[in-house]
């Protein structure tokens, strides 16, 4: 028996898949067990290694480092989204003299690793007389890289929409800017929201690269704590604690972003605009779009 996408596995295939699943689980457990054993064998679970985290001042500094991480992420996320929309709109322009420069900027920013960008801003710019704080070097590097990636995500979302969406917008008298703002971009953002969320998570994690240019974020403080011989140089425990904090932050970010995505999908205004765009194909009028633009309150 066949379905559209794949063949339903038979009895032998089911048994084979179960065996492979069990073997995979056993391999993963073996690898995890090996690492846990090595950590225990090297004394990473001893009280001395974890004694640093019994001090209040240490947790206060961890909270400060977390705040620095979130501050860099918040600025970088807002900047990357704004830059992403700007570059995507330029990339989608019908004019080559506009499209080509934006395309070049996107490709250059995407090609430069974030760490290289940070090095250039923090260590390279002072050579030409431009000094920059670590915070701004981290934020600008993250904005440039992630903004260019988000630009391609948004562009792909717009181009994946049926051509009839734009044509319907033009049919009711919208110009290109109106079609892009009211019709294409909202649908593209909703369609590509999972990818946008994933890129924002990458942005959050990439703030850890700031420790290389002395930005006092979580990894920087973990390295500092791990180098203190007074508390047994707990580099592994410090890394574990910081890793757990990063996991928690990423989960919270994903949860909030998913709530926003669900809210956008249920937005009455988005539904009204989409319905109004379809109106020309179904004998509707321009009044429906006007009402949708005003939030459904009528004229």
Structural description of this entry:
It comes from Microbacterium testaceum (strain StLB037). Residues 66-257 form the ABC transmembrane type-1 domain. Belongs to the binding-protein-dependent transport system permease family. It is a multi-pass membrane protein. InterPro entries: AA_ABC_transptr_permease_3TM, ArtM/GltK/GlnP/TcyL/YhdX-like, MetI-like, MetI-like_sf. The chain is mostly helical and 299 residues long. It has a domain at 70-265: MetI-like (MetI-like fold, Orthogonal Bundle). The chain contains 12 helices and no strands. Helix 7 (163-171) crosses helix 8 (176-206), helix 8 runs antiparallel to helix 10 (235-265) and helix 9 packs antiparallel against helix 10 (235-265). It is globular and about 70 Å long. The termini are far apart.
Features:
299 residues; mainly alpha; MetI-like fold; 75% helix; ABC-type amino acid transport system, permease component; AA_ABC_transptr_permease_3TM; cell membrane; membrane; transmembrane transporter activity
H/E element sequence: HHHHHHHHHHHH
Helical residue percent band: over 70%
Low-pLDDT sequence parts: 283-287
What class, by secondary structure content? Answer: mainly alpha
Largest sheet: none
The count of helical stretches stands at 12
Q: Kindly, what is the distance between the CA atoms of the first and last residues, rounded to a whole number of angstroms? A: 57 Å
Radius of gyration, whole Å = 25 Å
CATH homologous superfamily identity of the domain at 70-265: MetI-like
Global geometry: globular
Name of the CATH architecture of the domain at 70-265: Orthogonal Bundle
What is the residue-mean pLDDT, rounded to a whole number?
82
How many strand elements? 0
Annotated CATH topology of the domain at 70-265: MetI-like fold
**CATH class category of the domain at 70-265:** Mainly Alpha
**What fraction strand?**
under 5%
Organism: Microbacterium testaceum (strain StLB037)
Domain ABC transmembrane type-1: 66-257
GO biological process, one term: amino acid transport
InterPro entries: AA_ABC_transptr_permease_3TM (IPR010065), ArtM/GltK/GlnP/TcyL/YhdX-like (IPR043429), MetI-like (IPR000515), MetI-like_sf (IPR035906)
């Amino acid at each position: 028996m066949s379905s559209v996408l794949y063949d339903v596995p038979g009895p032998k295939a089911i048994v084979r898949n179960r065996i492979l699943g069990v073997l995979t689980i056993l391999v993963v457990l073996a690898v995890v067990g090996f690492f846990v054993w090595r950590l225990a064998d090297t004394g990473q679970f001893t009280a001395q290694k974890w004694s640093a985290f019994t001090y209040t001042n240490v947790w206060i500094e961890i909270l400060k480092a977390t705040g620095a991480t979130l501050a860099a992420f918040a600025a970088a996320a807002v900047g990357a989204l704004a830059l992403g929309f700007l570059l995507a709109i330029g990339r989608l322009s019908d004019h080559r003299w506009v499209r080509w420069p934006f395309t070049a900027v996107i490709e250059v920013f995407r090609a430069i690793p974030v760490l290289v960008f940070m090095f250039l801003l923090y260590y390279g710019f002072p050579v030409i007389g431009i000094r920059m704080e670590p915070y701004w070097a981290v934020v600008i590097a993250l904005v440039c890289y992630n903004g260019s990636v988000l630009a391609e995500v948004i562009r792909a979302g717009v181009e994946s929409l049926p051509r009839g969406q734009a044509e319907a917008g033009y049919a009711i008298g919208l110009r290109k800017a109106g079609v892009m703002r009211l019709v294409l971009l909202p649908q593209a953002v909703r369609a590509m929201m999972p990818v946008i969320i994933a890129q924002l998570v990458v942005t959050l994690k990439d703030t850890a690269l700031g420790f290389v240019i002395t930005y006092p974020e979580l990894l920087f403080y973990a390295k500092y704590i791990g180098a203190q011989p007074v508390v047994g140089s707990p580099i592994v425990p410090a890394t574990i604690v910081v890793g757990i904090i990063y996991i928690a932050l990423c989960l919270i970010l994903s949860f909030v972003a998913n709530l926003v995505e669900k809210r956008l999908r249920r937005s009455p205004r988005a539904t009204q605009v989409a319905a109004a765009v379809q109106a020309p194909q179904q004998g509707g009028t321009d009044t429906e779009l006007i009402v949708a633009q005003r939030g459904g309150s009528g004229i």
